[in-house]
Fold this sequence. Notes:
alpha+beta; elongated; disordered N terminus; 14 strands; 4-stranded antiparallel β-sheet
Amino acid sequence: MAAPKRGRSASAQSKPWRSLALILIAIVALTGGMFASGHNTPRLGIDLAGGTSITLRAVAQPGEESSINKTNMDTAVDIMNRRVNGLGVSEAEVQTQGSRNIIVNIPKGTNSEEARQQVGTTAKLYFRPVLATEASTGAATTTPSPSASSSASSSPSSTASSKATASSTGSATPTATATSQGRAASDALKADSTSSASPSASASASATPSASSSAAASAAAAKLEAQYTALDCSKKSVQNTAGKTAKAGDATVACGQVSGVWYKYVLGPAAVDGTDVKKAAAVLNTTTAAGWQVTMDFTGKGGDKFAKVTGELAKNTAPQNEFGIVLDGQVVSSPSVSSSITGGSAEISGSFTQEEAQSLANMLSYGALPLTFKEDSVTTVTAALGGEQLHAGLIAGAIGLALVVIYLLIFYRGLSVIAIPSLLVSAILTYVIMALLGPGIGFALNLPAVCGAIVAIGITADSFIVFFERIRDEIREGRSLRPSVERAWPRARRTILVSDFVSFLAAAVLFIVTVGKVQGFAFTLGLTTVLDVVVVFLFTKPLMTILARRKFFADGHKWSGIDPKALGAKPPLRRTRRPSAPVDPKEA
Length: 588
């Protein structure tokens, strides 16, 4: 029996070192990953790093004042919030102010500028048939005659990458869109009306209603043709305003960018509304050479509309076999179709990068707002005030940590050699993980998150105190240190797990039911609670086991914090055998 006992003892002695080696390897790996990622500090929220604050005001269309209500405002806030979060912008805040305004706070970050652009584009999303398109070079545009459209056409692929195609199978290949003509679009718009006009309508003072309608349509088409001819989409001011005020039922001109080159478009009335898109996502097609694609799922009515418009577009030649995806008056994509797309779903494929596909999917998913908004103001928020508050918070945290250390030194003396390094390990893990979560999931450190980290100091120290007090209780019962550590650990472990579970549960509930900065506090509190369990199990307990074998602690030195005399320990219990009474020979 002795040999197996020694084997178990040797195994037990090696476990503390294995646990310490494991947590050391984890720290080194995480720290190496932090430096390798190039993000050596946690990302800061808008209250600490500054950012952009946008004020958007709801604008009702004529006769639709009742549309500005709490329901539509809340829906708009939800869509904007998901739109910004879909770009990976951390700690963005979207909230209403009053009955008509929405405040959007976007912190500085990799995608903050793109988020600002997409939040600013708050009008509805439409799918419009393309009637004409050509590259906008900034020079005066010459409008060739319709008869010359075939010979005068040229592919924009010489100056830009091919445009995307839409299909129900996702196997379509990119097709170059031919340069089209403004007069051809004009003729297409007024073809129906001119065929029904009376030859003498222009000279008659009593023109028939159909002739008046035809004349109005012709005038509108001529106006649209003039707008298209004069449109210069190379100018930034034009890019943001062309087609922005067009109604869904009207034809319009618009601008759009393809691989860095700006194009101008003539677009027909909207055939499908953005609210008809149920879901869109960017996916990587690994089975074909299509690369990144955007998949779309439509609602029941939306699928029927999309099947109808794609069936009509498939009968035409380029560019009139394309539909423009228009967000806030700007064409964000203009895929072509070769057949009617049925089934309520479609794929857009082309020379997409991952970022382009995700951006388009984000616009399709979150682009349809119930209201139109005007950008009232855009202001830059400085981090001066936040920096002062952060400085004050760090000072408060340092004071709290110092008080905890003083408490440990006074009441636990030598045991503070275990507690203080444990606090240091917990701090290192918290910092490194926060730095990694910035680029990983978009986590940003704000002032409430800093408060959560400060609160975590008390949670971690509480775990040490529970363990130390359990050890002291065992010593008071007359046991030596090493058995006391092993007997105290199961009891302390249960208490620590229950306490940390309650803290984590509270943090999880707080994270779920709250929004904005309070979530930062809840997230940090939950993270540090989990790390407390890791540190106590893999560092504090193994280190206590190792130091319990050292003479200073094993002999109960008065400065060790576990001096039996100071703790009022009972003397060891020993059994004594009574001497047997002599047997009387007479009784025998």
